[in-house]
Write a structure and sequence with these properties.
The structure holds 3 protein chains of 3 kinds.
Chain A (H helix, E strand, L loop, with lengths): L1 E6 L2 E6 L6 H9 L17 E4 L2 E4 L12 E3 L12 H8 L9 H14 L5 H7 L11 H15 L1
Parallel strand pairs in A: 1-5
Antiparallel strand pairs in A: 1-2, 3-4, 3-5
Chain B lengths: L20 H5 L15 E7 L5 E7 L1 H5 L3 E6 L30 E2 L5 E7 L2 H10 L1 E6 L6 H4 L15 E9 L2 H6 L3 E9 L11 E7 L4 E6 L4 H12 L6 E4 L15 H13 L3 E4 L2 H7 L6 E9 L5 E13 L9 H7 L10 E9 L13 H19 L3 H8 L8 E2 L5 E2 L5 H11 L1 H13 L3 E10 L16 E7 L5 E5 L8 H13 L6 E5 L16 H28 L4 E4 L2 E4 L5 E3 H10 L12 E6 L8 E10 L6 E11 L6 H21 L29 E5 L17 H18 L13 H11 L1
Parallel strand pairs in B: 1-12, 10-11, 14-15, 20-21, 27-28
Antiparallel strand pairs in B: 1-5, 2-4, 2-6, 3-5, 7-15, 8-13, 9-10, 9-12, 13-14, 16-17, 18-26, 19-20, 19-25, 22-23, 23-24, 26-27
Helix pairs in contact in B: 6-7, 9-10, 10-18, 12-13, 14-15, 15-16, 17-18
Chain C lengths: L6 E3 L4 H9 L3 E3 L5 H6 L7 E4 L9 E4 L2 E5 L4 H6 L1 H6 L1 H7 L5 H6 L2 H7 L6 H7 L3 E6 L2 E6 L4 E3 L2 E2 L6 E8 L6 E8 L6 E12 L2 E10 L6 E2 L1 H7 L6 H8 L16 H22 L2
Parallel strand pairs in C: 1-3, 2-3
Antiparallel strand pairs in C: 4-5, 5-10, 6-7, 6-10, 8-9, 11-12, 12-13, 13-14
Classes of the chains: A alpha+beta, B alpha+beta, C alpha+beta.
């Protein structure tokens, strides 16, 4: 099937098998390997991307379902060589170690702040329910989201 | 082009944000799954659905005939590939022959049986379902205690008692200690099977270059060099024609400190099909076929005097090994024995381990590897003893600690504790929570019927593995430091960091030692074609051993700089400081960059002077290091549901000198998260048929953000004399200190109900049942 | 990880979709349950019809005393709809407890209801709300009460060829109080048990009590005996305990790795007491 998708501001048109998962489309067809695969049960969140402004797990979607959609992946966050405030905050606050969950974690964090510019610690932790990290114990991630909120608000 | 090299400040000890992060936060890092090669094929491993079964026949014809499938291999095809290695040795150890694919029998659910190779991963997945296997299902045993019972199904028919080994160690006069004891406390304590769960599963890309007879193997591993040596042996390849690359590695926690069947298998496949091949483990496979951790049933006895001095410890460990020995499987419980005295002075110990085969995936090193079990055991027992004697748990610990004046301290288990002030972190933790006041608060809460608990643990760990005689494959680490002709500094380390941040900490060391800008330093690791031999990253060793190797390579290099500097300055008295070599007589100077350039240009060298600015150092540590600390946890139990709420978590860790506080704190947090996971949530559960019923993240509860408490992390600093950096290691501290503190806290909360011990994970249901049975 | 092959159609109208479903195609809405099952190869439909993006199924409107939700509304839309938050807060509160942010962004109320997972959250609320569920086929449309919809584990009143097309919930009385209390399974986030309570009080007496329970039994149900115990009482702590103790009456409790039947029953009583207490506090 032919699909047309706008990814990180660029238009892509491809023929895909209906069963092709969106994550595989992004990684294998488009070549965006930022989103990762950490499970097959839609729990780890490493594959999180933004689809029409909403954080979704791209491993739990077929590429054909995204036909016509606007997608932002981790690769599309930095603009003109400048990191997105959430990326910058993850760096400053040591919100990552092995980095595997990080692209999804950053996209989920961005969604939190898009909807609530000044979240509490509890709201941040609740907002990250769909993303697992095995390295950080989440505390530096929580700090990063708080710092990003401050940076954006400043 | 000239580079100005100026040293502006000391970097060691500073919270410098990580130099590896830009690629990770932009999604541009390269993990194994991100590698793509022309003509790449995809492999799917067909696994046994049964824990124990005979293979009557395998029919691969349907799979092989599916369009896009290029090959299907079974056990028979790989009979020439060497067995999966066990690197540990113990007297009388029974080592099952561990082929990379099962031949006539399978021993655990998830056991690899065949591999399907196709041009496309979707086709490979379809074809894997086409492989038809005729099974004769056999009786399995998954519980190590049951496996020891007479008449239990034999995991390996040749050893009907299911025992892989018996291990005994004793010191002092333990019988006398128990005979003369005022009080003896006993308890069976479980350290349940856990699933390491790095967010990146395992994965391998293999590329055969037939004309060169060379194999490139990209694997998500913690030990690229050891892997190369062993896979070369398994495949019968010349070691120098096998290149192993550990690209970005998405967490390991010990489970990638191993040599797996699939690593050799993909090498075999690539050589057979003469095309690159990729295999990426699914999460389900990761749970079924990557090693698990812990799996202890421990029987403890403590002898003590009336006033709380511990006089003897007896321990019997039943270690669930699983069906095979992976790289270090049988060695892991021996680490528990080494650390069984904890931080306490007693010299009378007696330990037995029985290693038991079960029809489960093997256990092996998982964050802490043997030390969390030991710490959990002794720290639970000390609390049980304190309760028995009606003593305060802090007081009884302070009474038994090895004293600062006693270092180096020889332990009953044959170790030499390097340095410490064991009371210091405990006192600090008590101060942070205002302990006396907190106990008063608790008394108030109890009056109101609330179940509030205060628990602590003090831990010591054996780290920085380690002196070579004490390790299966060498305990040193290596570093090469080069100053390029342009003055840029490249550090090649044999450690293989995968989240620990050594690209930053090693750059801090190099920048400080050479007096150059940290941005001029690049740390390279994880590629056997680039890096001299190395051991790898595990056992909280990378900085303490690998960082020290960097330090010594830098000392050699500094001598070289001074030698060349003296030549250039025509002086016999020079000092190296702030990136400048200065003639002490004239004050004239040359920069490190100028000196490096000259060393490569090699004009007018005196005889016997080696050009270039490169130094390699293999550093052999004289001892382990022994980090220590105290964790204190305040909990409250929901009487209605049994749920545990952690109200406060205080971690005071002493990992020696701290090179980068940001990274150290991150390690503590992550360690604590895995300790909380064990204490409250995680458990690998096999049913009686050997089926893993926590086979997905749907059922295995890795802590999520909202399940973690806020961690108050603090430190005391006792440098180790073992290495010149004074660093002890911190990767596992959080995990080791955590679980007993949490359990002690919950037991304390429930102690008014007469509860004396709870095994992990302390699920709400378990606690609810305890509350109910007390009522 | 890799689903089996299937055909895929994304029709532009509901009628086209229903035509294909009548021929045996499987509807795909948000896919939050179906796709993981397909990836684990526990489900392998031959033909998927994507109804997840049909505008016809995506509305929340006030319609003469009832609220109508198109089945394609996502959990996030239900969670944040000002109309629902004002006029049927129980449904928004329940939606907020489903899965995680990403799941709520994609998953739909119709998909969740049709899937009828015994541990799903919505059914408890829909039962307490005495919701109506509109089922549509190519040539049929009928409305079933929530109490008659959830029949067994993953089994509903849906006939072959039918989909859930609309959910109808009442506009809540100004004085009503509602609450959804859930004990989550820590790994999956699904409900070990969840209880939705909806109460109305008049002159200090509870005149209406509706209690929907999920997670406890093979399918979600209304706890009639507990409701009866509560109605006519002033809702003292003792009344609440009495009602809560009947929450599992006549029900065979589920048991699995994560909770025994006993513990689930107990949690149901605790959740019921908490839900009733919270709902009562919200009554005018």
């Amino acid at each position: 099937m032919k699909i047309t998708v706008n990814i990180n501001g660029k238009r892509y048109s491809n023929d895909v098998e209906p069963r092709l998962l969106l994550i595989h489309y992004l990684r294998e067809v488009v070549g965006l390997t930022g989103p990762h695969i950490g499970c097959e049960t839609s729990l780890c969140g490493a594959c999180t991307i933004e689809l029409n402004g909403k954080a979704v797990k791209s491993c739990t979607m077929f590429a054909v379902q995204a036909d016509g959609a606007n997608i932002t992946t981790i690769e599309g966050l930095a603009a003109n060589g400048k990191l997105h405030p959430v990326q910058e905050a993850f760096w400053n606050e040591h919100g990552l170690q092995c980095g595997f969950c990080t692209p999804g974690m950053i996209m989920a964090s961005k969604q939190i702040l898009d909807r609530n510019p000044n979240p509490t610690e509890e709201e941040i932790r609740h907002g990250l329910e769909g993303n697992l990290c095995r390295c950080t114990g989440y505390q530096h991630i929580v700090n990063a989201v708080k710092a990003a909120a401050k940076a954006v608000g400043a | 082009m000239a580079t100005t090299i100026t040293k502006t400040k000391t970097l060691i000890g500073k919270a410098i944000r990580r130099r590896e992060d830009p690629r990770l936060i932009t999604g541009t890092a390269t993990y194994v799954e991100d590698i793509k090669m022309p003509g790449m094929h995809y492999a799917v491993v067909v696994r046994s659905p049964h824990a124990a079964a005979r293979i009557r026949s395998i029919d691969t014809s349907k799979a092989a005939s599916r369009p896009g499938v290029v090959a299907v291999f079974t056990g028979r095809d790989v009979s020439n590939v060497g067995p999966v290695p066990c690197g540990a040795s113990l007297p009388g150890l029974r080592v099952p022959h561990h082929t990379i694919l099962a031949t006539d029998r399978v021993y655990y659910a998830g056991h690899p049986v065949a591999v399907v190779v196709a041009t496309d991963r979707y086709i490979a997945a379809d074809a894997a379902d086409d492989v038809e296997i005729d099974w004769e299902v056999l009786k399995a045993v998954a519980d190590p205690v049951k496996a020891l019972e007479p008449g239990a199904p034999a995991v390996h028919p040749e050893w009907p008692d299911n025992k892989a080994f018996d291990f005994h160690q004793e010191h002092g006069d333990v019988e006398k200690a128990f005979a003369e004891a005022d009080v003896i406390v006993k308890q069976r304590i479980l350290s349940q099977r856990l699933i390491p769960t790095p967010m990146e599963t395992r994965g391998v890309v293999a590329e055969w270059r037939a004309a060169d007879r060379a194999l490139n193997l990209y694997s998500s591993t913690q030990i690229p060099h050891l892997l190369r040596s062993m896979v070369a042996q398994m495949l019968g390849l010349e070691e120098n024609r096998l290149r192993v690359v550990a690209p970005e590695v998405g967490g390991g926690f010990g489970c990638k400190l191993n040599v797996y069947a699939e690593e050799a298998l993909m090498g075999f496949v690539a050589m057979k099909i003469n095309k690159p091949v990729k295999w990426i483990e699914t999460r389900r496979e990761n749970y079924l076929a990557t090693i698990h951790g812990r799996g202890h049933v421990d029987d403890y006895e403590l002898a003590a005097t009336r006033d709380g001095i511990i006089t003897g410890i007896k321990l019997r460990i039943i270690q669930d090994l699983g069906a095979y020995h992976q790289l270090l499987t049988p060695a892991i419980p021996t680490l528990s024995v080494l650390m069984m005295p904890g931080l306490y002075r007693t010299q009378n110990i007696c330990a037995d381990i029985v290693g038991v085969f079960t029809n489960c995936v093997p256990t092996d090193a998982y964050r802490g590897a043997g030390r969390p079990e030991a710490t959990h055991g002794i720290e639970r027992m000390v609390d049980i003893l304190a309760a028995e004697l009606k003593m305060d748990p802090a007081e009884i610990r302070l009474k038994n600690f090895v004293q600062p004046s006693e270092f180096p301290f020889p332990t009953a288990t044959g170790l030499i504790y390097d340095s410490g002030d064991y009371a210091a972190p405990l006192r600090k933790a008590l101060d942070i929570v205002d302990y006396q006041n907190l106990r008063r608060e608790q008394a108030e809460a109890r009056k109101q019927g609330r179940l509030m608990g205060i628990g602590m643990s003090t831990y010591g760990e054996i780290c920085a593995f380690g002196p070579s005689p004490a390790t299966p494959a060498g305990g040193w680490e290596s570093a090469t430091v080069k100053i390029e002709p342009s003055g840029k500094v490249t550090v090649l380390t044999g450690a293989s960091p995968h989240g620990q941040g050594e690209e930053t900490t090693f750059a801090q060391i190099a920048a400080d030692e050479l007096g150059v800008d940290i941005d001029d330093v690049l740390v390279v690791h994880g590629d056997t074609a680039l890096v001299q031999y190395g051991i790898g990253t595990f056992g909280s060793r990378a900085t303490a051993v690998g960082g020290t190797a960097v330090y010594f390579a830098l000392q050699d290099l500094k001598a070289k700089i001074k030698k060349f500097g003296a030549l250039l300055l025509n002086s016999d008295d020079v000092t190296l400081a702030n990136g400048q070599c200065i003639d002490n007589k004239t004050g004239a100077s040359k920069s490190v960059q100028e000196i490096a350039a000259a060393s490569y240009r090699a004009m007018q060298l005196p005889p016997n002077t080696e050009p270039g600015m490169v130094s390699t150092h293999f550093w052999e540590p004289p001892n382990f290091t022994f980090p220590f600390g105290a964790h204190l946890v305040v909990t409250e139990i929901d009487r209605d549901t049994g749920a545990v709420k952690v109200l406060r978590y205080v971690a005071v860790d002493d990992c020696g000198n701290i090179l980068n506080p940001l990274i150290v704190t991150g390690q503590v947090h992550g360690g604590v998260a895995q300790g909380i996971g064990q204490a409250l949530y995680e458990q690998a559960v096999y049913d009686e048929n050997g089926q893993l019923i926590t086979g997905e993240l749907m059922d295995y509860a890795v802590p999520k953000a909202h399940m973690m408490p806020w961690i108050e992390s603090d430190h005391t600093v006792t440098p180790t004399p073992v290495n010149p950096l004074g660093v002890k290691g911190v990767g596992e501290a959080g995990t080791i200190g955590c679980s007993p503190a949490v359990v002690n806290s919950v037991v304390d909360a429930l102690s008014p109900l007469g509860v004396r011990h709870i095994d992990m994970p302390m699920t709400p249901e378990k606690i609810w049942k305890l509350i109910r049975s007390a009522q | 990880m890799i689903p089996q092959t299937f055909d895929y159609t994304a029709p532009s109208t509901l009628d086209q979709a229903l035509g294909l479903i009548a021929q045996g195609a499987k509807p795909l809405a948000g896919g939050m349950s179906l796709i993981p099952m397909m990836k684990l190869r526990l489900a392998s439909p031959e033909h998927l019809v994507d109804i997840g993006r049909l505008p016809e199924l995506r509305y929340i409107r006030d319609d003469a005393g009832v609220l109508r939700l198109g089945a394609g509304c996502t959990h996030y839309e239900v969670e944040t709809s000002p109309l629902l938050r004002g006029k049927c807060p129980l449904l928004s509160e329940t939606a907020a407890r489903i899965g995680d942010v990403q799941v709520r962004n994609m998953g739909t109320i119709g998909g969740s209801v049709a899937h009828a997972d015994p541990a799903a959250d919505y059914p408890a609320a829909l039962l307490a709300l005495e919701a109506q569920i509109v089922l549509r086929g190519a040539k049929s449309q009928r409305t079933v009460a929530a109490s008659g919809f959830f029949l067994d584990t993953f089994a509903t009143a849906l006939e072959p060829g039918e989909i859930v097309s609309e959910i109808i919930v009442p506009v809540e009385d100004a004085g009503a109080g509602t609450s959804y209390q859930k004990m989550a399974q820590p790994a999956s986030g699904f409900a070990l048990v969840g209880v939705a309570a909806r109460l109305r009080r008049s002159g200090g007496t509870i005149v209406l009590a509706r209690l929907g329970v999920t997670g406890l039994a093979p399918h979600a149900y209304r706890a009639a005996s507990a409701e009866k115990a509560l109605e006519g009482t002033p809702g003292t702590a003792a009344d609440i305990q009495m009602a809560a103790s009947r929450i599992a009456e006549g029900v065979e409790a589920n048991a699995d790795l994560h909770a025994s039947a006993d513990y689930r029953r107990h949690l149901a009583a605790v959740s019921a007491a908490r839900a009733i207490t919270a709902a009562l506090a919200r009554t005018a």
